[in-house]
Design brief:
The structure is a homodimer of 353-residue chains. With 353 residues, chain A is an alpha/beta fold. The first copy, chain A, has two domains: 1-118 and 291-319, Isopropylmalate Dehydrogenase (3-Layer(aba) Sandwich), CATH 3.40.718; 127-282 and 321-353, Isopropylmalate Dehydrogenase, CATH 3.40.718. The first copy, chain A, contains 13 helices and eleven strands. Chain A has an eleven-stranded mixed beta sheet, with helices on both faces. In chain A, helix 1 (16-27) packs across helix 2 and helix 9 packs antiparallel against helix 10. At the A-B interface, helix 9 and helix 10 of A face helix 9 and helix 10 of B.
């Protein structure tokens, strides 16, 4: 069975949580290649499961370097050719693995995916895309969640098209409803970027339902939510921060009286269910939508469960040709657009990587 | 006692909730002038309290027009000189009232405040500023929450300075800690706007503590959070949306079993406390920081409690010369800066209103 590359050194809880999550995925039969400091990884693997070498489909590729969370220069990231992240992405390029997962420096992963693997022809920017929970049964697919902090309207228009193709294939929704994150639902609300994007989406053949206020994102009105990576990141992390604050406040109240402690103890199973619905760990990391091959960025603070889910998600998407089908549709759409649209020159100019 | 102007026709729940909130504030002895359709307001007042004319310090100014939530052109807003919002702001200019409150179209209110009242000399943009709750005792003062969707670094730098003066006066914090909303805490993270602002704040005499991720906004690490109006609005509304989603999910779980229903019923007083801490209605509206006189924008979906709180807040800030003191300090600081900084030409050019 094709293997998944895991950057074992990336993330706040690396390497222990990454190895542990990888071992859980391996138990489910998914072959894993861990990229990182071999001696350290061997020790952790043996501590978690002494018989792993004979029972689990895990191999290790020794990588002397680690891309730190502080690595800022693109040149620095690209030139460090023996980092765990570089070698994991490179293995994907060379087809020794079918997908790559990292919880490390997301900007570095974005850069390496662009430089080593490359984007689908016609794609101006790859975007970080993931599912957010909603109060209905239908989740909302958000793009971009942080890969592109400075965007143009033409990027957001492409994000919408890519996401529509993805949602159609993955969730079987023929014409997904596309919403645009804004500071008001009225068509005239928004930054100049949002206003320009609004026009483009309104004129497109997408099922565009207009602006969506951040207050209504969980209501399930849209299947896709389009935003620039800065706003998307603020939205995602505010939701996490609010949940964290509520749990903190409840714990604080529980400490004030025995009644409160007992009351909260009784309702804790209900809380756990709600918490689990909003838990980013369950989403299994975000896909770099627009990259030629499956590259996944897990949350920097991923625990082992989040890593396991990211690997399961990567395995599912890489092994049944679904992402290949999605990417082919994206290429076909943008090729058609590039050849007939006025944006063709712009498309060519925008290929900055 | 000086009076507060209230735009009775602005907001999703106008005029009933606005009148009702105003009457509650009037009961506490605050004289109110309601601006709106006189016949309608007389009817509502009498329905709520038949003896209001003899017992409450409320008067009504008849205004034939209403600025709708869809009013988009600045010219349209400024030219409608008999709208309730226009006349309320105009009364503030003419000193017949000491502060003005509206839950109507916030962009229109921002425009009218700029055009009719004007900004403090040296201020490039007025910003919507309000307190967010935190898990500590210390609240966080956020600026901008939606007045300026397209910002320059020099605006954000000014927001930080104005907020620092406000927080020093209002919360008695000598050197408030200033954080910058970004997509990562590392100094190199952020959009180009955030990166440029980071440099300016780092070089300023403010107590700048660096970037703050949206996940950590409620942790109480900063006294002030600076952001552009688009990101600030997304942050504020995502927090509201997350709370709404959690409450919805809990109600949904409660419907699934008798045990869940009883458990949640028992813990409902604890929830109410937490909900109340996160309730925007308690914040009492946002101040347009940088405008010469006290103009307050309450949330569009304000209920009567939110309006009452906004009026109490306006009364408090207008009647003890605290805002006057704050505004004088802002004027003094920016006058000094304009005369000695390289931004002086820019400052002059930026006065677009």
């Amino acid at each position: 069975m094709p293997r998944i590359a895991v950057d074992a050194m990336g993330g706040d809880n690396a390497p222990i949580a990454i190895v542990s999550g990888s071992m859980e995925a391996a138990k489910k039969g998914i072959p894993i290649v861990l990229f990182g400091k071999k001696e350290q990884l061997l020790t952790i693997c043996s501590m978690i499961n002494p018989s792993w070498q004979t029972t689990l489909p895990i191999s290790i590729v020794d990588c002397p370097d680690i891309i730190s969370m502080d690595a800022i220069s693109m040149r620095q990231i690209i030139n460090q050719k023996t980092s765990s992240m570089y070698l994991a992405v490179d293995a994907l390029k060379k087809n020794t693995v079918v997908a790559c997962v990292s919880a490390g420096n997301s900007a570095a992963m974005h850069t390496l995916a662009n430089v080593i693997i490359g984007r689908i022809p016609g794609v101006l920017r790859a975007a970080l895309a993931s599912v957010l929970p909603s109060v209905t049964e239908c989740p909302i697919y958000c793009v971009d969640l942080g890969a592109n902090t400075d965007c143009k309207a033409v990027f957001l228009e492409q994000f919408a098209h890519m996401a529509a193709i993805y949602v159609k294939e993955m969730f079987d929704i023929e014409k997904p409803r596309v919403g645009l994150l804004s500071n008001g639902h009225e068509p005239y609300k928004g930054s100049s970027l949002v206003k320009e994007t609004y026009q483009k989406l309104a004129e497109s053949n997408l099922h565009f339902i207009g602006n969506i206020e951040a207050r209504d994102i969980f209501d399930g009105h849209a299947d896709i939510l389009v935003c620039d990576g800065f706003a998307g990141n603020v939205m995602l992390k505010t939701a996490q921060g609010t949940l964290k604050a509520i749990l903190h406040m409840l714990a604080h109240e529980a400490n004030k009286s025995l009644f409160a402690k007992i009351a909260l103890k009784i309702s804790s199973p209900i809380f756990s269910k709600v918490k689990s619905k909003l838990d980013y760990a369950k989403s299994g990391g975000a896909l770099l939508l627009g990259i030629r091959k499956p590259v996944f960025i897990a949350h920097g603070s991923s625990n082992s469960k989040a890593i396991e889910n990211a690997i399961l998600f990567a395995h599912n998407l890489a092994n049944n040709y679904r992402l290949e089908k999605i990417n082919n549709s994206i290429e076909k759409l943008f090729k058609k657009e590039t050849s007939c649209m006025s944006t063709s020159n712009q498309l060519a100019q925008e290929n900055v990587y």
